[in-house]
UniProtKB/TrEMBL annotation:
It comes from Aquincola tertiaricarbonis. Residues 95-196 form the DUF4376 domain. InterPro entries: DUF4376. This is DUF4376 domain-containing protein. It comes from the Bacteria.
Amino acid sequence: MPINKTMTAPNGAAVTYHKPGSAEVNYQQGVAVVRVLSWANQASHDAAAGNNPVWSWPITIAIADVANVELAITTSGIFAGGSIVADLSGGLPARRARHWAFIKQQREAREYAGFTWDGSTFDSDPDSRARITGAVIEAQALGPEFTRTWRLADNTLRVLDAKDMLEVGRALGAHVGRVFDIGNALYQQIQASDDPESITWPASVETQLSEA
């Protein structure tokens, strides 16, 4: 969603209207670099259909904050104190599409934020998911002979046997399934709403996901 804050870009232009754009994620470092695009005001943004920003700022945030990037970048740094506002530019179909894109970013952030099995939290970024899938296949093939020392999300180690590994794989699948089920339900709500920006990721689900 847009952020309102009056400031001066490095090229000397006065800007007041800002929107997070693309993000580059570095899972090893646990950060994402978000490109925040700026225009003189909302009118100039709308006139250019969201193109031709006056400036693009690279803002580094924690991966965990990608689910709510606007809040993260207005809490500290150069955009601190900015006001988060709904993007009402364009017609209702454009607003629905734009908000669904925003919800999908939140869905991905939660999908990759990790999951808990038997009291241990496992990473669920793409590389970790590939490793879990490979280990599950190996556990299925080796059976009782399988054992693996797994590094958890908090960098502690846990020894897993074949049964454990299969259950971790099932827990990962359940985690991803829950996130996508919520996303699909939100999509339906957005498409039926005349106020799509009011549709948000349910806060009560955060606890359910973290404790699953």
